[in-house]
Amino acid sequence: MLEMLQVSSRALFGRRFARHILRLTRVYWTSPDALRGGLLLGLTVSLELAAVYGNVRLSVAQRAIFDAFGSKQSAALAQAVTIFIGLALAFVLVSAYRIYVRQRLEIRWRHWLTDHYLRQWISSQAYCQMELHRKVTDNPDQRVAEDVRNYVASTLGLSLSLLSAVATLVSFSGILWSLSGHWQYDYRGSHIHIPGLMMWVAILYALLTSWLTHRVGRRLVPIQFDRERFEADFRFSLMRFRENVEVVALSRGEEGERRTALQRFHHVIGNWLQLIRAQRNLVLLTTGIGQTNALVPLLVAAPGYFAGNLTLGSVMQTTIAYAQVSGALTWFVNAYQEIAQWRASIERLFTFTEEIESTCADLQRAEGLRVERPRDSVLRLDHVRLNRPDGAVLMEDVDVAIKPGDRIALLGPSGAGKRTLLRAIAGIWRFGYGRIELPEATRTAFLWERPYFPLGTLRVALSYPSPETTFPDDKIREALHLLGLDALAHQLDEPQQWEQQLSGGEQQRLALARTLLHRPDWIFLDGATSSLDEDTEKRVYALLRERLPHAAIVSIADRSTIAQYHDRRWTLVPHGAAMALQAA
């Protein structure tokens, strides 16, 4: 809502908007692909100008056809029609390749800009900090997927159509001026002569209609901005339901899910009603302008034609030239709706950029909790104090070390901060003070109660985050066998949504099989065996000790059975208003 209010209070164009355009444009046009893109852009511009030139030649051919009709000369008509057909075929060819080359440039530009945003968003853990703590920017996925696409398509479309409008204006204004340069009108016995009369009519008409269009259509910018947000919120609620259908079914939560989806869809409906009302008013104006404008050259030329000063061909060419000049001058009127959507996309992309940069800046200048990567073999927490986001102290004076091969059970009451401590070690919790030293060039694995598996084949899920070609089939099958998942061995290349295909216990065992394949140096478990029975859990910890003897393992021991599989215990106990960690 705050973003929408900010957008609605800004002018359609301004210095801030110009800065946004320049920054977004530089992303691609300073990239290694800029040379290839420049060649495509040059070809696109050439074809755009060729299309304008084709229009000029076609108008001349049409004048010849109507003059032949007026003079009833069949030979001249046949010649004019032949020339017109040849020009029309060339124009069709130019128009087709003009669109094709532009679309090739569009997809290359979109590719680089999408990659840029993905690198910004999915890097330096900005995505995690934004989602966990800030929650200012709505639907970042939609901004990367749709707003980038809309921005690139509209930037090319609007800039090339503006170029075409300018070229059309230059090409046809001379024709229109010369055609109407000698028109005279008799008014009460006086001869009135206005040089280039039709040109002045077109300019005045364009100024008036552009002003009216902006007055009527300026509300479209904030409406378009909110439209993208409401649509994405609704789509996200449906995706969440699809990802959790089993839990919803077991909870008998269908009615609640339906209510939630409808509530979000009501926002879509409200925004849609605002949009169609604004578009209705704009369409009424622009359509009225277009229909009225078509009559202007005929009405102005009629007296001269009736007086015998103009031929039918001259009238028709004047009409064509006026339509081209007027269309070029009213480019703003015709493009207004797309401009509104384009500006909304730019605002959404740039607020997204600002939030990413602000998050990264906060992480870099954080003077509190620091995560360092020394050349050592010991993981240390040096006088660490963890705070809540509101500043309240959660845990203080944590001063411990973990050596390779250690087996540590982390105990404490619910809400004491056990998971927060693991987040701090992972580097995604920056609220607090002190120093965490995580040895350089070591691999870590964090296993949660609900594992994450990327979309794709089972091989992709087991190899994640490494490439799917990292592990040979025999190693993968061995890991599956050790975790009792032999039935999955023949499905390595089957793409599935594995969170929905496998039970909770199977998902946890699959995540453990992935851990065996990657052989990390540090393993942190939080509820990673909660869906397993006691015998299977015991076998898992025995397997980790046997297969990964040098790996340090830290487990949150919410169940009493877990502590017995570890050699040391860290216990969180109350210490004033916070918690303290006792190592034993």
3D structure, described in words:
This protein has 584 residues and is an alpha/beta fold. The chain has helices spanning 2-8, 15-29, 34-71, 74-121, 126-134, 140-179, 197-217, 220-243, 245-251, 254-306, 312-329, 331-334, 336-364, 418-426, 458-463, 473-482, 498-501, 504-518, 534-547, 560-563; strands at residues 184-187, 190-193, 370-372, 379-387, 393-402, 407-411, 432-437, 444-448, 456-457, 495-496, 522-526, 552-556, 568-575, 578-583. Strand 4 (379-387) and strand 5 form a beta hairpin. Helix 3 packs antiparallel against helix 4, helix 3 packs parallel to helix 6 (140-179) and helix 8 (220-243) packs across helix 13 (336-364). Mean pLDDT is 83; it is low at 1-11.
Briefly summarize what is shown.
This protein has 584 residues and is an alpha/beta fold.
CATH superfamily of the largest domain: ABC transporter type 1, transmembrane domain
Q: C-alpha Rg, in Å?
A: 34 Å
Structural class: alpha/beta
Order of strands across the main sheet: 8-11-12-6-13-14
Low-confidence runs: 1-11
What's the CATH architecture of the largest domain? Up-down Bundle
The CATH topology of the largest domain is: ABC transporter transmembrane region fold
Q: What's the total helix number? A: 20
Distance between the termini: 51 Å
**Strand fraction:** 5-15%
Task: Give the mean pLDDT.
Answer: 83
Total beta-strand segments: 14
